[in-house]
């Protein structure tokens, strides 16, 4: 009976650890604004993303001006070229971060939006002084563009619960682990098994990050041309961030396993 109880508690602890990893990462890198900005900041260093963002910002700004077509195309191409020239400047990073920050703020505003948009006004503001335009034009103030037509309501709702879910999952994992150790006949063996459970949870997320995550991001972003440009780079950035978290989790699991095995060996 004690063996069965220990096994069931091990399953609960392992499952709770799996949930805690995903919830903690989401709370840190998606729900938290600064974490989201940091996660997406390096996406703006990719040349293809820069070219797509520049073209989108130039076209959106020209559309907003309401100029005749003969000037519209000149403004759009001029702004786009100026943005691309300035991607190597120190101000580009801050302009890109401002754009991603506005995306996060809009996503988690009330009511939840029905699409995903980014305000590219900081990119245009960065470049407009460098453009030789046929007439003088002020900065756009706000310039929201659609990144994805997919409704993010389910994603936002899930991420909004991440912080509370992390607390519940971590608490459940700890309680289940303590009870498993208390019920076990061989605590050293149980400790090693709990460590293996942590490693299994990390391995499961490692696989999901390479199998399910790219498809999920593609479903969210492939509705627009700009979203398709973002897909590959954003996926790589998210997987790298998740991997960094998994390394620490795996180290903790390995330490628990090693401690359990060493304790068992000393008692043998």
Give a structural overview.
The protein has 268 residues and is mainly alpha-helical. The chain has 2 domains: 2-31 and 156-262, no CATH class; 33-153, no CATH class. Helices cover 78% and strands 3% of the residues. It has 10 helices and 2 strands. The chain has helices spanning 2-31, 33-41, 47-65, 69-85, 90-107, 121-128, 153-160, 162-183, 187-221, 225-267, and strands spanning 116-119, 144-148. The chain has a two-stranded antiparallel sheet with strand order 1-2. The chain is elongated and about 85 Å long. The mean pLDDT is 88. This is Integral membrane protein. The chain crosses the membrane at residues 165-183, 190-208, 238-262. Keywords: Membrane, Signal, Transmembrane, Transmembrane helix.
Give the tags.
268 residues; mainly alpha; 2 domains; two-stranded antiparallel ribbon; 2 strands; 78% helix; 3% strand; elongated
